[in-house]
Amino acid sequence: MGMAINNLPQIREECEVFHMSDKQIREIMSRLHNDLIKGLGKDTHANSIVKCWITYIQDLPNGKERGKFLALDLGGTNFRVLIINLGENHFDMKSKIYAIPTHIMTGTGLALFDHIAECLANFMKENDVYKERLALGFTFSFPLKQLGLTKGLLQRWTKGFSCSGVVGEDVVQGLKDAIARRGDLKLSVMGILNDATGTLMSCAFKNPHCRIGIIIGTGSNACYVEKTENCEIFDGEPGKSELLINTEWGAFGDDGTLDFVRTEFDREIDTKSINPGKQIQEKMISGMYMGELVRLALVKYTHMGLLFGGRGSDLLFQRGSFYTKYVSEIESDKPGDFTSCMDVLEELGLSHATEADMAGVRHVCECVSRRAAHLVSAGIATLLNKMNEPRVTVGIDGSVYRFHPHFHALMCEKIAQLVRPGIQFDLMLSEDGSGRGAALVAAVACRQQLSYA
C-alpha cells in the first residue's frame, strides 16, 4: 500500500450540506410552531401539514390502575402482543413479537387484520387466557384521524405499508371484524393510540412530570399535553382542562418548509420511497432512512474518488444495503479505533478500505446522525417553549434513540440551547412504551367506567 492520500478534509467539506446552523434551526422551530398552531385551529386544520390529531385521551395513569390487560402494538415490520398484570405493587408483563410478512404489509387490509387476530389468539392460548374476557388497548402507529377513544380512521400508510381497503376506514372496526370472523375470542377494544402516545402514557405511569412522548425509531412522531382551550378542533366532553395531541410531525416539511436544509440525498430517498412527497421530516430523522442517507453520500464520494480509491462494491451500490444499525456500530468505536467500521465495510465487500477511508465513513455517519438529533431537538424545544411549563420530562422510545451511542447526549445539549430560560427538561428512555402504553390506556378507560358505574 503506497502513501494513503488523505481526502478527509474534502469529505468534511462535502458533508457540510448536513450541517444546520443555529439560525437555520431557529427558523425550523418557528415554522414548526406555526404548523402546530395551524393543526390545532378550526379554520386551518383541514389544510395543515402537521395535523395535531386529538387523541381523546384526557387522563394520564395515576398508578392506581389494577387488573389484567391485553395490548397490541403494530407500527413497523413486526408487531407485538402483550399481556400486562397491574397489581398493588407489581407490574408483570409478557410479550411476544410476531413477524408481518411483506406480502401482508402490501396485501389487503382484511388479510392484515386476520393475521393479527390469529397471532392474538395463539398468544392468548400460550398465556392461558384464551377463554377469559379481557380489555385490550391497540397501538397503531400510522396517521389516524381519531373520532373517539375507540374510533380512528387511517389517513395514510407510512413506513413501507400499503394494505388496500384501509385508508379512510376505522381501524378499530377492522380489528373487531377480524376477531368476530374467528368467533372464539371475548375481547373488548378499549382504546386506540399511536406509539408516541403510548410512550407518553407509559412514562407518565412512572413519572408524573412526563408531558411529551417522542418516537425516534423506524418512523418519528411526537405527542404532548395541550390545554383544551388551545384546541379549537376538540369536540369531546367538556370539563377537562388538558388533552393529548398526536402531532404527526413526520409530515412536517411536506409542503416545502424544510427544503432549505434538505440535500440531494434527501431528495433521492424521497423519490425512491413508497410514499414520495410525504413524511419529509421523518425521512431526515428516522431509522428507516438513516442508513440509506449515509449510503447515498458514500456512493457519491466514491464516484468522486474521495473514498475507497474510487472503487466501490456491488453491495455499496445496492439500495438499502447500508443498515441504520451500522451507523450506531460505527459511531460506537472509540476515536482512532475502527474495529466496527472495518467489520461493516468488509460485510459490504469494501475490504480494500484504508484507515483514512474509515475515518471518512465515520465522519459521514456522524454528520447524518447529528443532523437527525438536531432536527428532533428543534421539534422538542418547540413543544417545550409552546407548553411553557417550568419542568417537563420527555419520554422517548425507538431504536435510533435507544441504540445510537451519542443521540441522547446530542439532544440534551441541543435542546438546552433552544429552550426558553427557566424551562427544565429531562429525557427519559421509555421501557417498552408503545405496548405498555396501550395496556395503560385500556386500564385507564376501565378505571373510568368503574368510577361512572
Quick overview:
By secondary structure, this protein is an alpha/beta fold. The protein is built from 15 helices and 13 strands. The termini are far apart.
Q: How many helices in DSSP terms?
A: 15
| Unreliable runs | none
- CATH fold call of the domain at 53-207 and 432-448: Nucleotidyltransferase, domain 5
CATH architecture of the domain at 53-207 and 432-448: 2-Layer Sandwich
Helix content: 40-55%
Largest sheet: 6 strands, mixed
Give the integer mean of the pLDDT values. Answer: 93
The CATH homologous superfamily name of the domain at 53-207 and 432-448 equals: ATPase, nucleotide binding domain
Report the order of strands and helices: HHEEEEHHEEEHEHEEEHHHHHHEHHEH
How many strands in all?
13
The first-level CATH class name of the domain at 53-207 and 432-448: Alpha Beta
Biggest sheet strand order reads: 1-11-10-9-12-13
Rounded Rg: 23 Å
What percent strand? 15-25%
Termini separation (Å)? 80 Å
What spatial form do the alpha-carbon principal axes imply? Answer: globular
Notable features of this structure?
Nucleotidyltransferase, domain 5, single chain, 15 helices, globular, alpha/beta
Walk me through this protein's architecture:
GO terms for molecular function: ATP binding; D-glucose binding; fructokinase activity; glucokinase activity. Residues 211-444 form the Hexokinase C-terminal domain. The chain has 453 residues and is α/β, with parallel strands linked by helices. Helix 6 crosses helix 15, helix 10 packs antiparallel against helix 11 (339-347) and helix 12 (355-387) packs across helix 14 (407-418). The protein has helices at 8-14, 22-40, 102-105, 109-126, 171-182, 195-206, 264-272, 280-285, 287-303, 324-332, 339-347, 355-387, 399-403, 407-418, 433-452, and strands at residues 53-54, 67-74, 78-86, 91-99, 133-140, 144-148, 151-154, 186-193, 210-216, 220-227, 242-246, 391-397, 424-429. It is globular. 42% of the residues lie in helices and 19% in strands. It has a domain at 53-207 and 432-448: 2-Layer Sandwich (Nucleotidyltransferase, domain 5).
